[in-house]
Write a structure and sequence with these properties.
With about 425 residues, the protein is of the alpha/beta class. The chain is about 35% helix and about 25% strand. Helix 6 packs antiparallel against helix 7. The mean pLDDT is about 95. Bound molecules: flavin-adenine dinucleotide. The site of flavin-adenine dinucleotide has 34 residues, from helix 1, strand 2, helix 2, helix 8 and helix 11.
Length: about 425
């Protein structure tokens, strides 16, 4: 078939969902244009490792062009899609229109500050390489400033690190940050009294990692407390002005560091789409993952809202995004053959979260467990999932080095 007559599939987003769609279509008689505003695919579950100086950005991101070097039916374009015209079937990119036969919108999510302007201005977040590096620079700078500060109260405030949100990201960041303070910075700053340093995790609800079974929530709390994290449940943050955190009950904590992990909403591109939205601005989709009234347009991953068999919304997880990417690709092929699309069914692979060295919680094949074994599974699973043999090797060596020598390698303060 002449290339020009092959159906044109445009995929917006080279995250977990978009990448899987493109890969599944590798051998299909189609033309694929994959678009992303960045030139890399980012492994977001390890972003917190950049923030705590455990890994460098290049170890958790991979150039999209390299990933698809051998895929002949795919062309990559770097740029931000600013408009999607569902009726006339084109997207706007870098000022020009790109027409499509099938469209896959896999634009992901962004941080939700719930309208707190001061929080957005002064708070730190973990969403992309830039925000993770900014967080790392800020954390390391606090130690430098504290080492020069004579006033003990001011010093204490500089060494008070607050994380808001007791979900997996908040828990992982709090555990890892506390270990950075206890094991690594203690050696770098021998004259700084790090007994003044505090890592505080604020959670508005009554439990950490609410989506996990009760025994794992309790284990997580226990493991974090063992790592000196001050966990405060049922504690709502009211405001942060860059110098002080105010809680809902009016009490304040002097601190210059607040890492916000308590909210996400669909990507900016989704705001402009004139379709039905559900909570967090996510697009309501059909079980086939396509848009109601637009069967050739699929919305998948974090940007999409679909419920599972129990009526619960599918979580914003990489596992959901990857499985949806596969189904969207298969459904496009079915539509091309004039067949009915299949409904998406999420196969839950289990839950896993790390709380630092030797500590993680897991629920796999219906069995809950925590501690060292869960941590070993977490380490090997994440090394396996990182893209690129070289990155896998480097991350493995890095983590082994950190493990034996308590020496996070990426303690660099760079200019933002
Ligand atoms: C800090 C953090 C930790 C996490 N930890 C875990 C974990 O442990 N386990 C887990 O399963 N999940 C985890 N997640 C969630 C997981 O990363 C997401 O569910 C997953 O990335 C969603 O995949 P996606 O393809 O929908 O979106 P993404 O992976 O976010 O990809 C979206 C892509 O679209 C691009 N894009 C957006 N808008 C445009 C536009 N207008 N034009 C062009 N390109 C655009 C973006 O640049 C991005 O590359 C974590 C997320 C974060 C932020």
């Amino acid at each position: 078939m002449n290339t020009i007559h092959k159906p044109h599939i445009v995929i917006i987003g080279a995250g977990f969902a978009g990448l899987e769609t493109a890969r599944t279509l590798a051998k299909a008689p189609v033309r694929i244009t994959l678009i992303d505003k960045n030139n890399h695919h980012l492994f977001q579950p390890l972003l917190y490792q950049i923030a705590i100086a455990g890994l460098l950005p290049s170890q958790v991101a991979y150039p999209v062009r390299t990933i698809f070097r051998r895929q002949k039916n795919l062309a990559f374009q770097m740029g931000e899609v600013t408009e999607v015209n569902l009726h006339e079937k084109f997207v706007k990119l870098n000022g020009s229109a790109i027409g499509y036969d099938y469209l896959v919108i896999a634009a992901g999510a962004r941080t939700n500050f719930f309208g707190f302007d001061t929080l957005e201005k002064h708070g730190l977040q973990l969403k992309d390489i830039e925000t993770a590096v900014t967080t790392r620079n800020h954390l390391l700078t606090m130690f430098e400033k504290a080492s020069l500060e004579a006033d003990s109260e001011k010093r204490k405030a500089m060494l008070t690190f607050i994380i808001v949100g007791g979900g997996p990201t908040g828990v992982e960041t709090a555990g890892a940050l506390s270990e950075l303070v206890m094991h690594v910075m203690r050696k770098d700053y021998p004259r700084l009294n790090l007994k003044d340093a505090r890592v505080i995790l604020l959670e508005a609800g009554p439990a950490l990692i609410a989506a996990y079974p009760d025994e794992l929530r309790k284990a997580t709390l226990h493991l974090l407390q063992e790592k000196n994290v001050d966990v405060r449940l049922n504690t709502k943050m009211q405001d942060f002005n860059g110098q002080r955190v105010t809680l809902a009950d009016g009490t304040t904590i002097e601190s210059q560091t607040l890492i916000w992990t308590a909210g996400a909403k669909a990507a900016e591109l989704i705001d402009a789409l004139d379709v039905e939205k559900a909570s967090m601005g996510r697009v309501r989709i059909e079980p086939s993952l396509s848009l109601p009234r637009f069967p050739e347009t699929f919305v998948i991953g974090d940007a999409a809202f679909l419920t599972n068999g129990n009526g619960q919304p599918l979580p914003m997880l990489s596992t959901v995004a990857i499985q949806q990417g596969k189904t969207a690709a298969k459904n496009i092929l079915r539509l091309m053959k004039g067949q009915e699309p299949l409904a998406f069914h999420y196969q839950d692979p289990g839950l896993l979260a790390t709380i630092g060295r030797n500590a993680a919680v897991a629920r796999i094949f219906g069995i809950s467990f925590s501690g060292f074994i869960a941590w070993v599974i977490w380490v090997f699973l994440h090394i396996y999932r990182i893209i690129g043999f070289r990155n896998r090797l480097i991350v493995m060596l890095n983590w082994a080095w950190d493990y034996f020598f308590y020496d996070n390698q990426a303690r660099l303060i760079t200019r933002d």
